[in-house]
Design goal:
seven-stranded mixed β-sheet; 28% helix; globular; binds zinc ion
Length: 274
């Protein structure tokens, strides 16, 4: 028995991760090209016919791309997405999404032996009306194991923290360094949105959320693996994101978390819980 997880790509060029157990294989987001997804899944020994479903966080093109939609449709993969996300995708891609095999989700649902809980996060603009975070839970030897997944949110509230408590594997965005964002060449309106409560998460905010989640977790092996995701190419570096989180954890005496930074165009190491 096992619960495995791999981030295929993370960032504004495309997001896609995969979770698998003996019974189910689930894609989270499909914002890369069909070619990239196919090749990277194949490297893990996963073929499109093995995919049970895809779960979509929101309708920005880096989370559901035209090529990604094509991949899901071509392979008849059921897509779990919220009704509002369907509307957003329909506005963007028009007829292409009419063929969607859409499974509207409400708060909780099950994909074979993976229990999925969804919760709303803080990320919206004129094209995207709602964004969701998820937890994926799987029972092994009478114990629940959990993956927490939040890649786009402008802020973290108590409800998000509560959802992520006791995750064994946590994926949280650590999008920008405040100084780099302020001095970046990006248009003022874009920078204002990124830094807003509806944009993305700063390194310091990701760091304090991880510390809080760890301190509130009671489960054995909680936050054993933490992936810092959606790291900006323009206003952050992997080193800064890691350093900020490491310093915060150290200042609170938190040890024993294996930290990774998720790359834009390179698969992360597979982590498996057995
Ligand atoms: Zn987004």
């Amino acid at each position: 028995m096992s619960l495995s997880f791999c981030i295929l790509a993370s960032g504004s060029n495309g997001n896609c991760s995969v979770i698998w157990t003996e019974k189910a294989t689930v894609l989270i987001d499909c914002g890369c090209s069909a070619k990239y997804i196919t090749e990277n899944l194949a490297a893990l020994g996963i073929f499109p016919r093995n995919l049970t479903a895809a779960v979509i966080t929101h309708a920005h093109a880096d989370h559901i791309s035209a090529s990604g939609i094509g991949f899901l449709l071509k392979n008849n993969i059921p897509i779990y997405l919220h009704e509002d996300i369907f509307e957003d995708a329909f506005r963007k891609y028009g007829k292409k999404v009419e063929e969607y095999i859409s499974m509207p989700f409400y708060e909780n649902f099950k994909i074979d032996d993976i229990a999925v809980e969804s919760f709303e996060v803080y990320h919206r603009d004129k094209n995207v009306s709602r964004t969701f975070g998820f937890t994926f839970s799987h029972e092994m030897n009478a114990r629940q194991y959990k993956i927490g997944y939040v890649t786009d949110t402008g802020m973290i509230c108590g409800k998000i923290i509560r959802n992520l408590i006791n995750s064994n594997i946590l994926v949280l965005e650590s999008n920008y360094n405040r100084i780099m964002l302020n001095s970046s060449f990006r248009p003022y309106d874009n920078k204002k949105w990124v830094a807003s409560s509806w944009g993305h998460l700063a390194n310091e905010d990701a760091a304090s959320a991880i510390a809080k989640i760890k301190m509130l977790s009671t489960g054995r092996d909680s936050l054993k693996y933490v992936f810092l995701a959606h790291i900006s190419n323009h206003h952050n570096t992997h080193e800064l994101a890691l350093q900020t989180v490491k310093e915060t954890l150290l200042s609170k005496g938190i040890l024993g978390i294996r930290l990774f930074t998720a790359k834009r165009k390179q698969r992360c190491p597979v982590v498996s819980i057995r």
